[in-house]
């Protein structure tokens, strides 16, 4: 948090932030400004709803707050073991479970007759540490990109840093 506050967003770069959104794999699950994946929440309005501290805490510790809409379910099997994933649908006989947030369209069918019980998982499908490999400036750029909702003309970007391509 000190990194973002000490550098400030005036030094941020939109294209670098967008690149960090892809490099940290955020774009595989999350959408910003209509671009990205659908396994996690749309982050376009993130900057208007949450503080820098809240955003960073959610990235660093994704298990702290898990949206009901995107959380996982644990299916305990009668013969032992379990299956965890996002319940996408169910019918009279089957649960339809997406186990891979990077490939949410891959659905596993789980027979209801094989399940002894279910419970909401306390573990987020989002992996912790996704930003650990970023240097301080890359983190600031990513945060500015998220705060701007993917808008390169947002006031968070100074005129001199709005674009690296001239």
Characterize the structure shown.
By secondary structure, the protein is an alpha+beta fold. Helix content is 28%, strand content 20%. It contains six helices and seven strands. The strands form two sheets. A five-stranded antiparallel beta sheet has the order 6-5-4-3-7, with no helix packed on it. A two-stranded antiparallel ribbon has the order 1-2. Strand 1 and strand 2 form a beta hairpin. Helix 2 crosses helix 6. The longest helix is centred in the C-terminal third of the chain and has 13 residues. The radius of gyration is 19 Å and the shape is elongated. The protein starts with a helix and ends in an 18-residue tail after the last helix.
Strand sequence of the main sheet, in spatial order? 6-5-4-3-7
DSSP strand content: 15-25%
Count of helical regions: 6
Helix content: 25-40%
């Amino acid at each position: 948090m000190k990194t973002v506050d000490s550098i400030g967003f005036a030094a941020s770069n939109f294209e670098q932030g967008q690149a960090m959104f892809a490099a940290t794999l955020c774009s595989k699950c999350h959408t910003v400004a209509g671009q990205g994946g659908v396994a996690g929440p749309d982050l376009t309005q993130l900057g208007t709803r949450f503080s820098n501290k809240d955003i960073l805490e959610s990235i660093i510790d994704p298990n702290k707050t898990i949206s009901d809409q995107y959380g996982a379910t644990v299916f305990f099997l009668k013969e032992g073991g379990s299956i965890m994933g996002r319940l996408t649908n169910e019918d009279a006989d089957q649960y339809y479970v997406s186990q891979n947030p990077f490939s949410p369209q891959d659905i596993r069918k789980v027979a209801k007759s094989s399940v002894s019980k279910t419970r909401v998982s306390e573990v987020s499908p989002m992996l912790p540490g996704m930003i650990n490999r970023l240097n301080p400036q890359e983190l600031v750029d990513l945060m500015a990109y998220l705060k701007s909702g993917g808008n390169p003309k947002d006031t968070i970007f100074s005129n001199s840093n709005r674009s690296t391509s001239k």
